[in-house]
Structures are given as structure tokens and as C-alpha cells.
Amino acid sequence: MCLAIGEALHSDARRMGFGSNAVLGNNLLRMYGKCGCLTRAHNVFNDMVEQSVVSWTLMLDAYLELGQEVATLQLYRQMQQDWVHPDEKIVMIALQACCSLARREEPSNVEGQITKIKALAIGKALHHDAKSNNFDADCFVNSTLIGMYGSCGRIMEAENVFAGHLQHTLVASNAMLSAYVENGEGELAICLYRQMHGEGVQTDERTMVIAVQACSILAENEKPLVVRGRPITSMALEIGRSLHYDALRRGFFSDAFVICALLSMYKQCGSLVDAETLISGPVNRDSLFWTEMLSLYVAEGEGEKALIFFKRMQEEGVSPNKWAYVMAIQGCSAIAERGEANGPGGESALVVALLIGQALHVDAFKNGFSSDIFVSSSLLTLYSMCGDIVGAEDVFLGLSQPDTVAWNAMLSAYLEQGDGEKVLKLFRNLERESFFPNPGTFVAALKACCMLVGNRGATFAVRGSSHILPLEIGRALHVDALKKGFGSIPLVCSALIIMYSTCGSMADVEGVFDWQLQHDIVSWTALLSAYIEHHQAEKALQLFRLVHQEGIAPDEQTFVLAFEACAELAEKQDVSLKDGQSVKQTSVEIGHALYADCLIKGFTLDASICSNVVGMYGKCMSLTLAENAFDVLPHYSILPWNAMLSTYIDHGQGEKALLFYQRLKAEGVPITEFTMFCVLRACSLTGDVEMCREVHFLIDCAGWGYSCNLSSMLVYAYGSCATMENCQAMFDSIGEPDVATWNAIINCYVRSGDHRTSMQTFEQMHFSNIIANRVTALLLLSSCSHAGDVDGGIEQFESMSKNHGIIPNMEHFKGLIDLLGRAGDFAKVKDLLSDGLVQPTLSIWSNMLGVCQNHRNVGLGNWVFDQAMHLQPKDAKAYITISNIYAGEESFNELSMH
């Protein structure tokens, strides 16, 4: 409307002969510029008889206001070519255009500094122009120069400009503060803020906002202390509180930006209590304040508080904007994720979250936000978390033009449901709809490939082909990501590494990693995880050392993986005697080094690291070191307790484990399903049937009775502690036992020596359409071995791959050899060990030597002993066993010759 009126007035002025008037021309430039009509403005500018400095200024300002930085700078150069001398205002506009260019430019590493090279070159030329015209003495030009160098990543040059003036004005000081904050230099910004106070510079609301932002940077970089399970950044928090008091004293609480900056800072510091003091204070409660406060509650996982605050916002007459709805819906997601809330009628957290979310959905619809992409994406996430995939699909289908954010939210919803096939089908539809996927879209699709691995029922087809393996789909996605320019993005590379690792292609994993030009900690961690997943502990530890050599700072997750690698390495090593104790010495030394590094970096506050340190020492066969580590490390979380409990059990210390469980309860640490699983294992070791029943009662009270792991462990525990009648009764009480529970009951019958019932139970499992796994096969071989049923054992071994699709591993071959050895069928044993189908370990040769001793078979014993010596020439156990074989045959002379 304004543009139409302006055009009409312009037409009248031309008709009346005022078209050449310079003042009118400048006002027309201003009017067209404000209305966003650059073409008309440019026409007026070109038609002007004389283009004054004011005209050039208005034209440059119009281009800059509409985000046309390149055109602004081109016009500035044209002005110079026309021999028009700029004034301070024109140089400032050109410098501001340079700042905007710098913010859009991809940074480059120049002599260790992150720099915007192109923008810096333009900025330096403009700085030269300012100097030539003596404009750099102007405080506004000076501050704009500081801002330009800050945007280009050149803090030193910005400091030089700032230091070039003896008197630091508020404008220049704010510009320098802003430059520090823009480059993540929070400490320098706080020092300058103090300096400003020392020099008597009168700060304003903008100064306060920047100083508080600097405090947020300090909090982000500071290693937090953990108080009652919450991370608190102490130093940054104290500085933030001082700024809070300063803002209150100076009367800045009426400024919405100051309040929002303080809320954001407290969110970064993890101090919800301090943020809540602002609610009752004399603050300007506009929609920005309410939304920021809602965001803080959501960030802290306080979903219920967020919803209460949302209700209070409406009660105070503030209409929620779309971001308030987004935060309220995310509050529902937080309730669903925590799973602790209950409704007045005892409804579960998921039901409560879903009902409130649906009410918010209706409310958002009434207020015209139903088609907003961010509101819809939040609803998609909530519905998928609550298991309402139909609701999520309805929201998605209700969008007339879903963008990539909505597509990604729907993909995430299917991922949440574990439906990899639907993710890939939706990804294919996305391409058909001509939407351009972003890196997050590819990450979702690659995760879906991982889900298809091992899914025998997967029937995903592409371009008419029948069944395509997940690895082939993953490779196709990889090619597509490369074509779209996402191949080198760290997030995508990490997802590719995980996908190839899950699909079992370590050559592709290493290929993706080597192809990356630059590796960040995320890609290093992904490769570490891949090596550990494929039991390549040595490579994982070598890679961890390489991370240090490359100057990359490992994070907590990297250390967790390094400890896991160390624990796995320990499992492969032989025990040696150290200070009268049996330990895995090499692994202990590596573990000590990792632990010392964690202490230096302050990572021992992390619960996952604490639990992995304890677990690692346990795997190194040093119970003492595990106990010492547990006692000195913080154990506010259940994770270290579970690790110590598991370590006692792995060392056969059932009584200690049960005493430790009593200590855990006395400390009031919240238990988990895994805690109960460990206690049941301890009951199996000690035969404590009363404790087993107590734990069974606690499991039912906690609502964990449907857990497959706990159900199978209860069956096994009753089988170990009570009679087989109790064990069978426990099994029969489970509605739909899974393969682990069937394995547990079979195992109990095998351990009780009831070969017939164990085989009958397996038959029942088969008729119940439960697919046997490798553990089932191993149990059946063990049953046949203990019963001396050679034919049955061989039949079961052959049936593994033929009827059940199970590829035999070393444990299965070991079981078969044990079966044949017990039965005295030494010819078949030697054939099996000689034909190259299996590469026997020292454990297999040791077991075989024991069999030879039992059967007094000197000939085979000699051959087995030779094979064992090839693997481990100094294995004392082998020498003792072969001596006993010869002793049994009174062949000491032959032994000395051997």
C-alpha cells in the first residue's frame, strides 16, 4: 500500500516537472529503499542529474538493508571510479557490508587462525580508504573497523584498531567486546568488561548483553562440576551472578535482551535455580522472556515445570507464539523420555505426555500454528516417542508443503519405532518429490541400514529388484551423499563409518575415514567404536594414541571406548603373577596410563568413565584395583555401582556381590534392571534362594517383569538356587518366552544332567516358532557331550547351519571336540583338528590334553602337546598335563627324550 502511494506521488511530481529536483530525488531513493523496491530506486538514482554523496549513501544503504552485500560493495567501487569522495557514513556502510560477507563466508585456516580470507582482503582495502581520508579517527568508523576484523576472525587486528585510540568510547568498547564474543574469546571479553569499569566507561544494556554472552562462552568451555547428578559450571556461574546483580543495580531489567541473555547464560551454566529468581523479579515479561524461560526448563529436562510455566504465561494474558508451543510440546517429550510422571488416575508418563501433547496440538491449530513446520516437527517427535506413529503420520500428511525439517522429523519417528524399512521407503519418496535432502536426512537413512542388518524379514526393494542387502543400500546412499556434496561432512562420515561397521565391512570403514581431508573427534570416535565392535582392540588403542599425536583433544566418549578396548585386550591376554596376584599385566599398564590421563583432564566426574575404569580393572583380573578405583571415584550414578557388582560376579565373588548390593541399597542409589540382573547372577553363584525370591518380588513391583533379560535370568537363577520344579514353574509363568529364556531353561536342564529333558525342551522351543541362536547350539552340544551322546551331538552340529542358519564359531568347534574326546573317538578329533576348518586356540589344545590324560592316550597327547607348543612354548599347564599323561603310562624316559 505504501509503495503504491509512493509511486503515485512520484508520478505526480514528474508530471508537475519536479523530476530533476535533487531533494525530491533523495527522498524517493529513501522511500523506494524502505519499501524494498531496489529496481525503482536504481532507476531514480540513474535519472538524477547530479548524484551527490547523500544520494550515493541512500543507495548504498538501501542495498545493505536488503541483504545485497556484494551489490553494495560493487556500488562503492563504482562510486570511486566516478571520482566521488566518500564520507564517514559511506565507508561505514561498506565496512558493514564486508562484515555481512564475512559471516557468510566459509572459514579457512591461515597460520593457525580461522580467517575469512575474501572478506578480510576487502576489509583491509576499506581500512586503507578510511585511513587515507582520516576517517579512522571517527569513533563510529573505528568501531565498525573493529567489528569487521572480528567478523573476519582477526582478533589481533581488531585489538590494534581498538588500542589505536587513547580514549575508548562506549561504542568502540562494545565493538571490541562483540568481536571477542564472536570469536569465542569469553575470558578476554570479561577482562575488557572489567577494564571498561576501571576506566570509567559508562556501560549500557548492549554492553551487559555482550558481557553475559561472554559468560555463556566461559560456561561452555568450562569443565562442569556434577552436583546431585547435574553439571554446574562454577566459575562462569559466579561471574554470571555478578553480572546479574550489576544489571539489576543499573536498572537494565526492563530490557528484554538483557533478561534473555541472562536466562541463556544460566541455561549454559546448568543453574535453573538462578534463572528462576528472574521470574519473580522486576523484569519485562514479554513473549521473548516466556519463550526463553520455557526453553531453559526443556533444556534441563524439566518437562512438567515447562508445562506449568506455559499455563502461567497464558494466565498472565500473554498469547503464546509458535516457539512457545514448540517448547511446550518438547516439554511433553521430556516427560515421555524421563518416564517418571504419573497422572491423577495413575496413567503412565507416556499416556500423560501424549494427552497433553494432543491438547497442545488442538490449541496450536486454533491459533493458526498447525501448518508451522517447527510446531509440526515437535509434534512428530512427541507422537513417535509416545508410540503413536499414526498420530505422527497424520501430522506429516497434514502439511501441504513439508520441508526437509518435517521429512527428517518423520524419518526420526520411524527410527524411534525401529522401522528401518519405512525410513528407507520414505527417503526414496523424498527424492521422488524432488526435495533436496540435507546431511541429517542421509544420517537417518544410514541408521536405517544398520537396523536392517540381521533382520531376516527385511523385504526392502529398490527400482524393481527383489531383496537388497543393507550393505548394498548403504553403498548406494554413500554414492548419493558424495554426489550431493555431503561426503566430507563429519556427521555424514561418522554415520557411514557406523553403517559399514554394522554391515561388517571394515575395508569400507577405513576407506571412508582415509578419504576425509580433516578428522574431528566425532570421526575418530566413530572409527574407534568400529574397531571395538569388530574386536580389534589393538588397532583401537593404536588409533587412540594417534588421536593424541594428531593434536586432537579426546572427549569423554573417546576415553570410554579406549577403556573398552583395554578391557577387551585383557580378555585375550594370559594371566601373569604380579606382587603375589594374578593380573593381565600389559592391559593393567595401558589402563593405568588411560586412568592417569582422565584424571589430568578432569574426566573422572563422568559416570560412564568411572564405570569403565572399574570394569577395565576387573577384566584385567585385578579385583583390588577395581575396588580401589571405585572407592576413590565419584559414584553418585548407578553406573559405577553396576560395574563393580558385575566385576565381583565375573570374579566368582557371589557373596561379596550380595554384600555390595546391600551397601548400594543403604546408600539410596536408584537401582536399574541391570542391577537386578547382576544380583540374580550372584544368587546363581551362591545358591541364595531367599535373595532370589526377594529380587523377584522387587522386579515385579518395579514393573520389570516383562524384561526378556530379567525373565531369562530369573529362570536360570531358580534353576541354580532351587529345584528344577521351581525353575520350570518360573518358566511357565512367562507369557511369551524369547530365545534367551528358552536357552536359560535348557541350560538349567543341561547343568542338572537331564539330557533327555533338555532335548525335549529344545523341541518345544522349535514348535513354538522360536529361532535357535548360537547359544542354543552350544548348550545342545554341551548336553550331548555330558551325556556321551556322540551321534546326537554330531547331528546337532550339522543341523546348526543346515536347519538354523547358524555359522559355527570357535566355541562350537570346541564343544564338538570335547564331545568326541569324552567319547574317546580320537580319530574324528584328529581329523577335525587337522582339516583346517577350525584354527584351534590354546584353550582347545589344553582341553584336548586333559581328555588325552583321562583316556591315557599318549600318542594323541604327544601330537596335541606339539600343537600347543607352537602357539605358546612356555605354557606351564601343557607341560604339567603331558607329564601326567606319561606318568600314567610310566613313560618318564620317553618324556626326557621328547
Question: Which keywords apply here?
Answer:
single chain; 898 residues; mainly alpha; two-stranded antiparallel sheet; 6 strands; elongated
Helix content: over 70%
Apparent shape: elongated
What strand order characterises the main sheet? 1-2
Strand segment tally: 6
The major sheet is characterized as: 2 strands, antiparallel
| Oligomerization state | single chain
Count of individual helical segments:
49
Mean pLDDT: 82
The low-confidence parts are 456-467
Q: Please state roughly what percent of the residues sit in beta strands, choosing from under 5%, 5-15%, 15-25%, 25-35%, 35-45% or over 45%.
A: under 5%
C-alpha-based Rg, rounded: 36 Å
* Structural class by helix and strand composition: mainly alpha
Whole-Å distance between the termini? Answer: 108 Å
Organism: Adiantum capillus-veneris
Family: Belongs to the PPR family. PCMP-E subfamily.
Protein name: Pentatricopeptide repeat-containing protein
PPR repeats: 52-86, 169-203, 286-320, 403-437, 520-554, 637-671, 738-772
